[in-house]
Amino acid sequence: MSEQTPPPFRLAYVPGVTPAKWVRVWKDRMPGIPIELVPVDSTAGAAPLREGAADIALLRLPLQRDGLSVIPLYTEVSVVVVPKEHVIAAVDEVSVADLAEETVLHPLDDVLDWAALPGEEAFERPPTTEDAVSHVASEVGILVTPQSLARLHHRRDLTYRPVVDAPASQVGLVWLTDRTTELVDEFVGIVRGRTANSSRGRRETPESEAPAASRRGERKGSAPKKRARETGTSGRTGASARTRPGRPRRGRR
Is there a shared CATH topology between the 9-75+170-206 domain and the 78-167 domain? Predict the structure, then answer.
């Protein structure tokens, strides 16, 4: 009778995030546990985790963190997507102020946290970033978006340039704290770069528990060093450690 295949470990990820390198490591270390990629919308937040559609997720921050464990991974550069013939294509980078006279598209799934939208508002908001890129190609307006999304929806007739002072999008590794399984710990270790030997059987230590763990280590292994500090040497104790026998003391003249 053949053994039943275990259920897959489910990794959700938003557009623009590329988990391929971590998936490869998982397949090497955990050949008996299949991994399933679950694409989710940029605006889904932590819903895939809370609804049980994924075990762990690569999401855009910030999030409502109630009940979540979050490890920020990296922050993306924001870029402006323009036609190749646009004047912005002639410079290396721009600022938000440089967009003041442009029609800037604001898709409904925009992931940038704008305090105030730059430029002139378009007649309507495109449903998605992909639709907004199509509008840019039709010269309806320009788009500011994370660089990974500009690459994801790249077109030959478009280009992009960094916007130095635009809001940035941060990507983090997220899971439900009360569903921190051994498989979740394993994937966290892979993302953090732990080796196969060090990650086996090791659980992430929450920051709130780290001081207690440090104190346990001090109680267990630091007593000999403490005694050595008190005596001034690691092998002698008492007066014999401080004064060498046989050497006369110098008196005052």
Answer: yes
- Residue spans per domain, the chain: 9-75+170-206, 78-167
19 phi, psi to nearest 5 deg: -85, 10
9-75+170-206 under CATH 2.60.120.620, yes or no:
no
Q: How far apart are CA 15 and CA 171, in angstroms?
A: 11
Decide: helix, strand or coil at residue 107.
Answer: coil
**What is the structure's pLDDT at 3?**
66
According to DSSP, residue 53 is labeled S
Which CATH number does 78-167 carry? 3.40.190.10
**Under 8 Å between Cβ of 77 and 161:** no
Taking the whole predicted model, whether its pTM rises above 0.85 is answered as: no
Mean pLDDT of 20-39: 96
pLDDT tens, residue by residue, 224-237: 444 444 444 444 44
**Strands (E) located in the chain:** 9-13, 35-39, 56-61, 68-76, 78-83, 103-105, 120-121, 142-146, 158-162, 169-176
pLDDT tens by residue, 146-172:
999 999 999 999 999 999 999 999 999
